[in-house]
Amino acid sequence: MRVGWKSALCMVSAVALGFGGMAHAKPANNGIAAVLHADKPGPVLSRNIQGQFAEHLGGSVYDGIWVGPDSPVPNTRGIRNDVAAALKAVKVPVVRWPGGCFADIYHWRDGIGPRAQRPMRKNDWWGGLESNAFGTHEYFDFLDQIGADSYIAINMATSTPSEMREWLDYITSSANDTIADQRRANGRQKPWKLGFVGIGNEAWGCGGAQTPEYFANEYRRFATFMHRNGATFHMHNDNAALRVASGPNNDDTAWMDTVLKSAGPMMDAISLHYYTVFDGKWDSRNEATATGFPAEHWNHILYQASRMDGVLRAHEAVMDRHDPQKRIGLYVDEWGTWYAPEPGTEPGFLYQQNTLRDALVAAMTLNIFHAHADRVRMANIAQAVNVLQAMILTDGAKMALTPTYHVFRLYMPFQDAQSLPLDVQAPLLQSGTDSFPAFTASAAKGKDGRIHVAVANADADKGYRLSVRLDGLRARKVSGEVLTAAKRDAHNLPGQPEQVHPVRFDGARITGDGLTIDVPAKAVVVLALD
Ligand code: AHR
Q: Which residue CA neighbors atom 4 of ligand 1 most closely?
């Protein structure tokens, strides 16, 4: 299914990234008119929308997060200080681990006990050797160091409910049982807090090439043993951790339908994976390069990123049929750009550069998630360090914060903020015969009490003047930052001065009961109103 935009103009809103159905505000000042409804608050934007993903793949965990206590790279108990500090600085809310496809070949017992005695395994999915130096204790130490919540993906394809159950007990048991004693003997007295448990990963693909019917049955079997207290019937999850079922790829609504029908009552959330690849076709993912791309690739990639909105709508329609109360969350626990690997790197390690274009993808995607916040309660960009649309790239002891990282930094005020509808007509851009909105926008009342507005202008050539009427709000002043660069593929390299980072934005002003924003071309602007 291809999702496109049929009309010449479309409406964007923090509550519904709408395509028709809302009152059209009139353009003003030769620009674009918009209305921010501070008097009509929408759903809370879960901080988990800014979640991360770290898989045992290439340089994601090893070198990217874990260097070991004896490394010359400054570290705390083996976890590199620069990366931990950078992730802590953007208040990463949750980190999904250990995969990905890797999760379904991972046996958690390999990753506990004295590190010198842990087995060396082949990483059959991504290549290289898996030393198991980074296991359960190291993962929770990493989370403690950055202040994030836990989300483990259990091995469903090559393991058993019993192995899952024992890992959960190892992490969470406070009883005097043998598994908890083993954890204590390994240096951790108290149980850890477990936030989320993913049951299966891409069960339709690397997670066992299952049919949705087969997966639904298997999911039911595993989910039955998630409970904490045997007195509780399996339908009720009395475990503090939430159960996340492996969900569809892209726009596969048949998977969503079958799995929800059979196993919906036994899950708290279902995942969705959507990657931005050239032409939207998996096989063409190596046809686009991260840098040095032809001008028309800018729109191709941003169009593919914009399809997230239609994909979410399609799945939400199915979810609404099965779960009208919206009990079940939709977790987009893998998303981001996927280009050809950087020349000279191991292809299986999925190492790619990250440019201003990726920053636009990130901001557009976060705006889309905000518009779907009644269902989308978690999302995990793939991945945190050194893999795909990375937040951070490392090279030995050196590190670069990518343009994507800077978008997450700018969007921090949206964590757990109350969304506010922002109706705006965006002109359309073309990608071949497909079209998509030139910009997306979000507004919300932050935990700090301020109103925050974000605009991602994907138009590489043109800036826009947004004249925003402020309904239910008197603002006295506006301040903010902008992320842009002269070159479309501007990027940051480890150990070199940054080419792309946010700077103070002077293009916004309060005008009576309104706000005027002069958004530059190919730019992300985030404002705070007082
Ligand atoms: O993020 C890289 C891989 O992409 C994951 O392991 C897998 O789940 C997806 O196909």
A: 100
> What is the 100 CA–ligand 1 centroid distance (Å)?
5
- Of 379, 399, 375, 515, the C-alpha closest to 453 is 515
The pLDDT of residue 24: 36
| 63 token code pair | 């070198």
Q: What pLDDT sits at residue 182?
A: 98
Ligand 1 pocket mutation, candidates 249, 273, 337, 387, criterion most atoms within 8 A of CB: 273
Residue nearest to atom 8 of ligand 1 (CA): 100
* Residue 125: C-alpha distances to residues 99, 104, 128, 266, 345 (Å): 10, 10, 9, 29, 16
DSSP 34-72: EEEETTS---EE-GGGGEEE--SSTTSSBTTTB--TT-S
Q: Is the Cβ atom of 198 under 6 angstroms away from ligand 1? A: no
Quote the ligand 1 centre to 234 CA distance (angstroms): 30
Least confident piece of the model among 89-103, 237-251, 291-305, 334-348:
237-251
Instruction: Verify whether ligand 1 is closer than 6 Å to residue 55 (CB atom).
Output: yes
C-beta 101 within 6 A of ligand 1: yes
Cβ neighbours of residue 130 under 8 Å, at least 6 residues apart?
Answer: 56, 110, 120, 121, 122, 123
Q: How far apart, in Å, do the first and last CA atoms of the chain sit?
A: 43
CA–CA separation, 432 and 298 (whole Å) = 12
Query: Which pLDDT score, from 0 to 100, does residue 228 have?
Result: 61
